[in-house]
């Protein structure tokens, strides 16, 4: 089926063609008609499936019908968990609305609020926002929701993980009761189901992609080695294979900065992107990475949302994630839109439980591939015993893969969320 069959207006059809798209993805085929029918929607879709266009196109279609009569009143609000993703989604809205009389603006923390106030005073039809900054602007009476018709929550699972639930509930209380609400999430956890029950009215459910099908098109390699040699191994891989653009995932902000220093000392252009860096530094690093001015961009999971690089060839898990679903999010940055991609994971003995959880999630047992010269001292990393096969664990073992929920961690996550307002 082509986009023509979805009933989109000429202005949107022209913009779609200019963006180089000819056929809608599965999420777009299902979501666009649902949104146009003004149904509330709960969609489960992984990153890289085209979900942004899945809600952007029908929202713009709806707004364009009465664009002249309701010129530049806030009618659609898109809530986003992180700054980079907010900027990316806003750019998509701008691209698709190029031939429509609609204005879009993005507001998020890390930059001066005064310029955002000025832009809102000029009037917008679509506002892309992180929850914290949106509430700051509301308190300054720079934004009101009197004419709001559509609310979109993108990456709702990440919103909950970052501790935005109270902000989301507060924002919900400020919005008109009569509205259309669209929610997109990579998972349908208990927390998401609770959010759906409290925010959506008789929603249509769509689930188009499982974790396993998302990663099938990506070549995945697991390299067992000693933890102390991970940096050396990464440098070796980049130099030996002449990798020119690689996104590297670090579990911590400090680890990301330390790895960047080691890469630079080896003559590899690298930068980090995480919550402790200023928005200007993050934006500059991402722009340099996209332009090919740096070889390696080292990111944490929180900051990585919104990193969308056309034809990104390589992703490296320098540290395996504690939450197995994050593995799917990470490697999904490559192999997008039918392109090939390679995902490499450097795996040390202390990450055995994480690897088991990932294998259970995607229903795939990885073959260990040793990098010559980097043989691990623990041979079990290469030849696991039959008792350690991923299908033979008691159910309680899976609990060890979850992030610990101590009060201390909760405070850290809260601070990170505020920094990403």
TrEMBL record:
Protein name: DEAD-box ATP-dependent RNA helicase RhpA
Ranges of compositional bias, category Basic residues: 401-421
Gene3D superfamilies: P-loop containing nucleotide triphosphate hydrolases (3.40.50.300)
PROSITE patterns: DEAD_ATP_HELICASE, HELICASE_ATP_BIND_1, HELICASE_CTER, Q_MOTIF
Any GO CC annotation of this UniProt entry: cytosol
Domain DEAD-box RNA helicase Q: 1-29
Reaction(s) catalysed (UniProt annotation): ATP + H2O = ADP + phosphate + H(+)
Placement of sequence motif Q motif: 1-29
GO BP terms: response to temperature stimulus; ribosome assembly
Acidic residues composition-biased segments: 386-395
GO MF terms, alphabetically ordered: ATP binding; hydrolase activity; nucleic acid binding; RNA helicase activity
Pfam families found in the cross-reference section: DEAD (PF00270), Helicase_C (PF00271)
Keyword set, alphabetical order: ATP-binding, Cytoplasm, Helicase, Hydrolase, Nucleotide-binding
SMART domains reported in the protein's UniProt record: DEXDc, HELICc
